[in-house]
Specification:
single chain; 5-stranded antiparallel sheet; 6-stranded mixed sheet; OB fold (Dihydrolipoamide Acetyltransferase, E2P); D-amino Acid Aminotransferase, Chain A, domain 1; 18% helix; alpha+beta
Amino acid sequence: MLAKALSAMPDPAAFPNGLAFEPKWDGFRCLIFRDGNEVELGSRNTRPMGRYFPEVVEAVRERLPARCVVDAEIVVAVNGRLDFSRLQDRLHPAKSRVDMLAGTIPAQLIVFDLLALDDRSFMDEPFGTRRAALEQALAGVEPPVHLTPITRDVELATAWFEQVEGAGLDGLVAKPLDLPYRPDARVMLKVKHARTADVVVAGYRLHKASTEERPLLGSLLLGLYDDTGTLQHVGVAASFPMKRRAELHDELQPLVSDLLTHPWGAWAEADQTARRPGAVSRWNAGKDLSFVPLEPSLVCEVGYDAMEGTRFRHTAQLKRWRPDREPRSCTYEQLERPVSVPLEQVLAGAVGT
């Protein structure tokens, strides 16, 4: 079951049977199937996940009911904060590497919905009933399995929204209490932070459909200057209509520069496993990530939701060009810093109280 995005907190008064709010966890969505010792972890696209998280499989055997199906999120926390990049590291083909990471940076499981228990399906039951049954089934559950906090108090939910990001969370999910479980339907609600930043356009990649006869821009490579005056690669903007992709390619040609004199030129000879323009993709080794360097003189405003370290967590959205901005003024200082809240406090539902 999926969620549609809202630009603001939903009004509980619009839901006659009530609305519940939960933290939106930033991890891998996962359906958990347990039948005795048999445990299956499946992603949203049915990809088997158990081999990557053996410690989660074992925790399910130890802490979940003997026969159940639950909807959950697999997360990894480092220093009291969710770390999505460390979570991605777990998707490794080598069992020895997976086992080593399972021991050094173990994953946790956040359970937030109940689909079946013993011989009873809960999918047609309203969410309020499913939640009550889930609370009973997981009463006293211990880490690394957690029951997600929940509240019907919109003021408390607003406090969560403002504070949980500091623990690495995405925002909030809102669920009507009378909502049955509907697979693949976008019937839940989600509220995420929306922010803007002025960034330097320092390069571009060609679109996969680009040809010599009709070159198309695939994505803009974006940069921000750090405290040392170094232009860091912070992410990409990539959502453009096909006609605009052709126009952007032509418009940027006067800014094409020599890689050797470009701020990112040294990276061409550097470690190709690092996260930088031109590096090999960690998830698709055959994917061409080479880029065309641009003179770093063009500034644009982009929308983004969150940072993952020094980079945008997701693809940014181009808002407008900023010819009035000096590229050197585009620094990390302009970015909003979330309030720092320990993950343990969020799991305990103690934020905003």
